[in-house]
Amino acid sequence: MKAGLRATSLILVVSGLLAATSERPHARPQDKPFFTSAVPADQMRGKQAVVETTAGTFVIDLLPAVAPDHVAYFMKLALEGAYGGTTFHRMVKDGIIQGGDPLSKDPAKRAAYGTGGLGVLKAGPTSEKQTRGAVSTVLVPGQPDSGGAQFFICVVDQPALDGRFTVFGRVVEGMRVVERISETPVDDKGKAAERVEITSVAIRNRPPVPFTVETPVELAAYRAVLETSAGTITVEFFPDKAPEHVRNFLRLAQAGVLDGTAFHRVVRGFVIQAGHLPTRREPLADEQKALVRTLQPEFNDTTHVKGTLSMAHGDDPASASTSFFICTAPAPALDGKYTAFGRVVGGLDVVDAIEATPVAGETPVARVDLVRVRIERRR
């Protein structure tokens, strides 16, 4: 489905999210005050919601600076356990998923799903864009001050929805889970034909970026185990020589960015090279993409000899990102021009085996996988 058609169909669905149900939302009592946060936005900063579902887990970065009342109400319900047992009751494949209705806890009330938990929040700011992963408050059509417990998540960018709903969070991990939920079969009214339940929503502090504050001595305690289709290679790092390259490799490895890539370049008597993202068997998740960046060179006095782990780059020395190589022989021409940041301490025979694989030019005839990179801490 093309993005434009998807956005158009989504407007029709979201605009009629409640109109399509057999019951109408109850009128909001005129004397009932709207919910307002008693917690300053600063105290909610840096919070995330970990949403456990029967289809998997995803994580929402909450945006109290943008929509403090909406965030505070979502956190209140989460902390009370109110979302446990609710379902994602409406979805558009590769479009949106909608959930959070307290009525959806009861399978007998399926006809009323989409009508509960509303009329609690006044309309908030709508300047945040409805991009992939945006989490917004569901409204009764034509009633901007009708938000409450229900929310929807954009599976893809939906610019046609900009300015219509209050975005109060963004999914930063687990978008593949959100995508899978959007693929749930629906009936002729667009309601989920199968229950996809929220089992819990936990509020936590946003974890720090890994391998940011460790000293070079602390970084030196880590090793990486490269599990390949030819065997296992173990490397240690030189954070005293290239600390940012070591941090980068550890982050990428821990997040699984390098998993599923291939040894795409083999030059006998020179290097074997892996980590090139176009060789990856599956596309990166959004949270993995966020970790990919280019590095400033950290050229040092480490020589490129057999077993040296070094970072590949293009014509620009500051273009290294994920692709790395292991020397299979002395390569003094690389010294001072590529950043060496580690060495092989186990599995040189596997390096030799990969080097010996048949090639067409510099490309292996049969794929040699980097199946997984596992981080270990030396005792």
Overall description:
- The chain has 379 residues and is α+β, with helices and mostly antiparallel strands.
- The chain folds into two domains: 3-205, Beta Barrel (Cyclophilin), CATH 2.40.100; 216-377, Cyclophilin (Beta Barrel), CATH 2.40.100.
- Helix content is 17%, strand content 26%.
- The chain has eight helices and 19 strands.
- It has helices spanning 3-15, 41-44, 68-79, 175-182, 216-219, 243-254, 286-289, 348-355, and strands at 47-53, 56-62, 88-92, 96-99, 134-137, 151-154, 167-173, 198-205, 222-228, 231-237, 261-262, 265-267, 271-274, 308-311, 324-327, 340-346, 359-360, 363-364, 369-377.
- The chain has a nine-stranded antiparallel β-sheet. Strands 3-4-6-5-7-2-1-8 form an eight-stranded antiparallel β-sheet, with helices on both faces. Strands 17-18 form a two-stranded antiparallel ribbon.
- A hairpin with a 2-residue loop joins strand 1 and strand 2 (56-62).
- It is elongated, with a radius of gyration of 25 Å.
Beta-strand percent range: 25-35%
Global Rg: 25 Å
Largest beta sheet: what is the strand line-up? 11-19-9-10-16-14-15-13-12
CATH topology of the largest domain: Cyclophilin
Query: Can you tell me the overall shape?
Result: elongated
Structural class: alpha+beta
**Largest sheet geometry:** 9 strands, antiparallel
Number of domains: 2
What would you say the CATH architecture of the largest domain is?
A: Beta Barrel
In the predicted model, the low-confidence regions spanning at least 5 consecutive residues are 1-23
Q: Give the fraction of residues assigned to helices.
A: 10-25%
N-to-C order of helices and strands? HHEEHEEEEEHEHEEHEEEHEEEHEEE
Mean pLDDT rating: 91
Number of strands: 19
Q: What is the distance, rounded to the nearest whole angstrom, between the alpha carbons of the first and last residues?
A: 52 Å
